[in-house]
Amino acid sequence: MDRSRTPHHPARRPQKILVIGAGVAGLSAAFRLQRAGYDVTVLERSAHVGGRMWTEEIDGYRVDTGAAMLPDSYHQMRRLIRDAGLAHEVGPSGDVYGFLRDGEVHRFGKRLPRDLLTTRLLSARSKTRLLRLAADTRRMGDRITFRDLTRAPEADESCVAYADRRLNQELFDYLIEPLSTNYYFAPPEELSMTHVYLAARSALGIGYFNSPQGMAFLPRGLARQLDVRHHTTVSAVEETKDAVTVGFTDHDGVERQETAAACVIAVPGPLVARIWPGLPAPMRAFLSRLRYSTCLHVSFGLSARPRESSMWIFVPRREYPGGLGVCLDHNRAPGRAPDGKGLITVYWPTYTSEALYDLPDEDVTARALHDIEQVDLFPGLARRIEMTSVSRCRPCVPATHPGSIAELTAGVRSLDRGSRVALAGDYFSFGSTNAALTSGEIAASRLAVTLDARRPPL
């Protein structure tokens, strides 16, 4: 948020702003608006803040139930952490990825060019073809960011079409597909190249940071400084010339209305279309068609740590039906497991997650153990398990299908920048906590400018 453009009027009574949704998008918007002098209340339907950025503490283990990775390229998040007084809670974390092929884990860290040159994961021909992806990513430059995708229409191309045109089958099988399955939990046949470009630019070959307290450190830290009402379900948002009225059911089940000078809607895309009748048609069409992945994953607390240095292992579907993601949480970030113990999490792609989603936890856990034993990454794993936890996330990550950037561009252009209602969500860019956070700050900045322009002179 450009605080130099954010008006602050301490001599006046603060204007009321309601923020719907206490995920990281809503909390970042609320924090910036409160810092700018507004009276802000956050309405959240669940029992906790953070949305997908949450952590459960179980028997001495910290299980991140949604988002897991914080690359050093998350500059907006770093700034917010500092401004919220939380910088002392974060530090460097794991940065090594592994890709499984023929029973061997091929590792890549911050020295990515060297690792790619020496790896046996890819043939010499594929390494040469990979230079094309590097060149295309470089040409994309700052037009594809966590802030805005509308300036990069060429990223709308499908993964399959791009691989056919610029890469080869081996790169599709051992790079494009596992990145799709592990970042979006969706098959590359349904995705555009957006996530691949952003991964190449902002996630691979760089450092990472995290908090020993778990991913929830940030939403918890922001919420401590804000007025958040839990168990509050919003049903309608109506804008008039002079105000915004929000209808909701409070924690006692009572239907109420509250009027404010402005409102930020920071909920999953399809829900926006249901609660805001005034949403412009092009943006309504984009959000109504927005598809989210489903994520189901199982964490195993271990009495001893496996001998593996990767923080995350990509298991391509060439190596195991459907593909898998295996996170070694004790390598990924400090504080996830007690000293000397381990924590690993098995992730499935969307279609497998959907098939298992409603099964009892014991059945889901048995399937996860079966799958991890089949890929034979950690022999004797079952004997070391002392804790299990099943996490479900639906909706999870918005998937950028081919053509979605064009739809997003039409939707963004239809929004009235002078409206008292602003939107925030990771659907404006790559589905990530940093994109969500950035959208919240943009919404806060826009509302501050709008309200200042409408404020009568003293």
Output the keywords:
458 residues, alpha/beta, FAD/NAD(P)-binding domain, protoporphyrinogen ix oxidase, domain 3, five-stranded parallel beta sheet, 15 helices, globular, disordered N terminus, oxidoreductase activity, Amino_oxidase, Zeta_carotene_desat/Oxidored, FAD-dependent oxidoreductase, FAD/NAD-bd_sf
Molecular structure report:
With 458 residues, this protein is an alpha/beta fold. Among the domains are: 3-51 and 216-280 and 416-454, FAD/NAD(P)-binding domain, CATH 3.50.50.60; 97-202, Orthogonal Bundle (protoporphyrinogen ix oxidase, domain 3), CATH 1.10.3110. It is built from 15 helices and 21 strands. Strands 7-6-16-17-18-15-19 form a seven-stranded mixed beta sheet, with helices on both faces. α9 packs across α10 and α10 packs antiparallel against α14 (404-414). The radius of gyration is 22 Å and the shape is globular. It starts with 15 loop residues before the first strand and ends with a helix. InterPro entries: Amino_oxidase, FAD/NAD-bd_sf, Zeta_carotene_desat/Oxidored. It comes from Streptomyces alkaliterrae. Residues 24-447 form the Amine oxidase domain.
What's the quaternary structure here? single chain
How would you sum up the major sheet?
7 strands, mixed
Low-confidence stretches: 1-5
* Tally of helical segments: 15
Q: Which fold name corresponds to the CATH topology of the domain at 3-51 and 216-280 and 416-454?
A: FAD/NAD(P)-binding domain
Overall geometry: globular
GO molecular function: oxidoreductase activity
Organism: Streptomyces alkaliterrae
Protein name: FAD-dependent oxidoreductase
Domain Amine oxidase: 24-447
